[in-house]
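Design a sequence for this backbone.
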């Protein structure tokens, strides 16, 4: 009945990475730290969000959290460092996700 910690980490990595995409700052995860505050149950309503904490030329630092939508309590939080993708990799990812050149979310 509990969500595996690896799934929780994947959700956090995704929302933090998409925060980068929103600013057209595509990158790959270099480091991630996750804190598990409370168990997440199968079927539990949650909300996950990620945001950029610090942006440098090639390094982006992000944070994210998963909260219980009913109580608003934090279930898990994370911090991560991303390294900028090359321009070629960025174009490839935009094509994969159906974003036109120069377009972001």
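Sequence:
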């Amino acid at each position: 009945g509990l969500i595996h910690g690896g799934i929780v980490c994947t959700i956090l990595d995704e929302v933090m990475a998409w925060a980068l995409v929103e600013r057209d700052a595509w990158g790959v995860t270099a480091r991630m730290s996750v804190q598990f505050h409370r168990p997440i149950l199968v079927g539990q309503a949650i909300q996950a969000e990620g945001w950029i904490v610090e942006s440098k030329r090639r390094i982006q630092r992000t944070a994210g959290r998963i909260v219980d939508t009913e109580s608003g309590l934090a279930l898990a939080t994370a911090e991560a460092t991303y390294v900028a993708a090359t321009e070629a990799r960025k174009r490839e990812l935009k094509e994969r996700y159906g974003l036109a050149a120069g377009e972001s979310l």
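The chain has two helices and four strands.
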